[in-house]
Write a structure and sequence with these properties.
The chain is an alpha/beta fold. The protein has 15 helices and 15 strands.
């Protein structure tokens, strides 16, 4: 009889058959060894709509069961309705877990309230918990909200909640070494490790295709929210073009968000040739990203983001990365594997020079795809890196059995 494993994650993927979401993949990945139940929301955070519910609550051909908890939903991530929605799903999670029994639970954080509720219920039945940290709350709030006395008070409240969650878990896994180090140092937690979000490397078509020896194909995948600074790239390529250089390029943007309309209008005003496709399926991306030369990773300098979803997708497709992200961890990886250029949002001349370098050295950049693929294999291939979760689950089951038997 397989041990029972609960994966408690509010933000799972919408398309369970092809989603690249960490928790959907993890549920399927571990289902050969454990009886896995994914406990998630019936509201799609990405689409802001209710999810289509499968009649038998079992994901076809995936080998794990899924439970949808009711959540009212919200239209904006920054709204009172989202706070209310989080309160309701936390209440429904508590009710659902009240009489449930598992051997181990993997609990996602954030949101902190959801994670706190899950840990409290698991501890009542002495169920070991692996906390999987996707983002640092409340540290991430610093970029979103203006610093006031009220903000400092609320942040201190959430820091106490975060400390409780981190210290109550039997193991903490973070999506980057940066997050793991910060959790360990700030909250005095020793049992912390890291496993990148990554991606399934073998599912990518990473055979490079080029239409022209001098046509540079840029691509961006992800959110178009205020955390990202694609406008810096658009302004830079416009400046380089204005200096008398005839640039042959395409720019494809896959994603959506609050700044999409602004960015589209900016490109028209600057005469930048960019195509905005909106969100597309992950199955489409993993078979088409290798058609591009350069991936864009432009992130606000105040962002707490470290290793994020798009990194694994870019490297697994063999792309050269132009990055303005200030995270030391991603900068070091790009430098160590020689698979991109690091620039600063605050230094437009540096961005201009980097874009000029790309156009002048396209053949050399295309040869560096092997470096990106090597980085993906070493650090982002879920087929290998997610074995850390299997190891932790097995170890906690063993240690808990010994503890209960003594």
């Amino acid at each position: 009889m397989k041990a029972r494993l609960a994966i408690i994650a509010q933000y799972s993927g919408d398309d369970f058959s092809s989603s690249n979401n960490r928790f959907n993949y993890l549920a399927k990945f571990l289902s050969n060894d454990f009886d896995v139940e994914l406990i998630t929301s019936n509201f799609s955070h990405k689409n802001k709509t209710k999810r289509p519910i499968l009649a038998d609550n079992t994901v076809n051909n995936c080998g794990y069961s899924i439970t949808y908890l009711d959540e009212p939903g919200y239209n904006s991530n920054k709204s009172i309705m989202r706070v209310f929605s989080l309160h309701i799903i936390k209440r429904n999670l508590r009710r659902y877990l009240k009489n449930k029994s598992y051997d181990v639970a993997i609990v996602a954080s954030p949101p902190l309230g959801y994670a706190e509720c899950a840990i409290n219920e698991m501890k009542k039945s002495n169920t070991p918990v692996i906390l999987d940290v996707q983002d640092l709350w409340p540290e991430a709030f610093d970029m979103i909200f203006r610093r006031t006395f009220a903000f400092d008070f609320i942040k201190a409240f959430y820091e106490r909640k975060a400390k409780f969650i981190y210290q109550s878990a039997d193991r903490v896994v973070a999506v980057s070494k940066t997050y793991a180090k910060q959790i360990s140092q700030k909250y005095a937690v020793n049992n912390v490790s890291s496993v990148y979000i990554g991606t399934e490397l073998v599912s990518f078509d990473n055979q490079q295709r080029t239409d022209s020896i001098d046509l540079v194909k840029f691509v961006y995948v992800g959110s178009l929210s205020s955390s990202y600074t694609l406008d810096n790239f658009f302004e830079s390529i416009s400046r380089v073009s204005a200096h008398g250089k005839t640039l042959k390029y395409t720019i494809d943007i896959y994603g959506d968000g609050e700044r999409k309309v602004y960015l589209e209008e900016l490109c028209k005003r600057l005469n930048v040739r960019a195509t905005f496709h909106g969100f597309v399926s992950f199955s489409y991306l993993r078979t088409h990203l290798s058609y591009y030369d350069v991936a864009l990773n432009f992130i606000h300098e105040k962002s707490e983001a470290s290793i994020i979803n798009k990194h694994g997708d870019y490297f697994s497709s063999g792309l050269f990365v132009l990055s303005s992200q200030q995270s030391e961890e991603i900068c070091d990886l790009i430098n160590a594997y020689d698979c991109g250029l690091n620039v600063s949002n605050n230094e437009p001349e540096q961005i201009d020079k980097s874009i000029t370098f790309i156009f002048n050295n396209l053949a050399s950049i295309r040869h560096k795809r092997v470096n990106s693929l090597r980085l993906a294999k070493d650090h982002f291939a879920r087929e290998r890196t997610y074995n850390e979760f299997r190891f932790l689950v097995e170890r906690l089951i063993t240690s808990n059995s010994i503890k209960q038997g003594s």
